[in-house]
Amino acid sequence: MSIVFAKLAISLLSSLLVIAILLKRDALTSWLEKKPVNGTLLTGWVLLRLLPFIAIYLIAGQEPTSDVNGFWDEGSKASLGQIVYRDFWSPYSPLYAYFLGFWLKFWYSPKMIVLTMALMDGVAIWASYHFFRPFQSKGIFLFNAVLYLLLPGSLVLCIIGAQEDVWMWLFVILAYLVRERTLWVAWYAIILAIGLLMTKAIFVLILVPLFILEKQKIRLLIPMVIIGIISLAVLYPLVGWEFTQPLDEAKTLRAPNIQSILNPLFFNHIGVGEKFWNWIGLAISVGLACLAALRLRNADFRVMLSRVWIVLYATMMIVQQSAYSNYIFLFLIPLVFYVIDWKNKTQIALLLIFNALCVIHPSYWWRLGMPCYMTPSDPTASTELLIDYVMQICIVGLTGYFIWLAFPRKSEV
Q1: What is the mean pLDDT of the chain?
Q2: With contact defined as beta carbons under 8 Å apart, do 352 and 18 qualify?
Q3: How far apart are CA 79 and CA 74, in angstroms?
Q4: In this structure, what DSSP letter does residue 59 have?
Q5: Which of 21, 340, 326 minimizes the C-alpha distance to 202?
Q6: How far apart are CA 264 and CA 267, in angstroms?
């Protein structure tokens, strides 16, 4: 449980720093208004990403654990020229392992994977500045960037967990920024298709509401279909149907989600693990995202995407039985930079609690043996199990709160 206590300590320290910075919000925002964006973001990244990396992995000599071991298996084999899905198993899109393998050419170590995740997180923040610039002054964005870099959900999941979920947000806003500057729908479609090939299968979910709102549907569809056909033409002769391996992730039972909480209350009679839950989860998450997108069809793209992204992936986090609380890293940037009101004490307190729970629970749950509760008495069988179940309830409840916060009301529209 040492990793759990370490994450708890980091979460508490990070939260205290966030509170301290918020107390000086006006003064810091005014001060940051005069600072250069690129230099300030680079300084923040060095202080809150690179230095923690150096302290943990180079000075303290800690070795990466958890998901990094799986990423290392994929990346190292890809760097040696092995074929994804045929020579090694992967739950990710086909180009993911080769991107990691490229960076391993510079430093053949699992620590390089963590550093790669930190670099991509920094790029995502930099791209987000250009994405949100029309709605936020320089000082406000930079202040929010400091808060984001400090939050446990980004700091721990990036430097200790080495999660890649933020890549998905990066690709979708890059696609929009390129379209905005070139006015070419084709480039927008190509970058979205590359994002799908580089990240996870769940990236395809955001394409549904984006396609519904797209006025030039054919121009969006044609490049994506061409890239899809080329990808299949390359993959199928090499690996056959093994390229569907990422879909197997939907069969993996994790927690917390609505099913894991309800299962003991219904004496294991709700069919946890059955495929129909995956389809129900997809229908709910994509359906809510499409409804939110339609309500915001006349809003600026940045407004629409920020809210729809949170609604889609936060909902997926609690309705898909294969999702777990690390998925907070998927939607933390739009939540921090656009949705959260940093003057609202209730929202701030709940966000800090949410962050801490999301980074602590996966390690705690895994070290308990990944329990699946069957009866109402199971969670009370021990103090440790009760703590786990209460954390699950809190995470699901808080996720629901932030979905509600992001979902557009008719009055707002």
Answers
A1: 95
A2: yes
A3: 9
A4: I
A5: 326
A6: 5
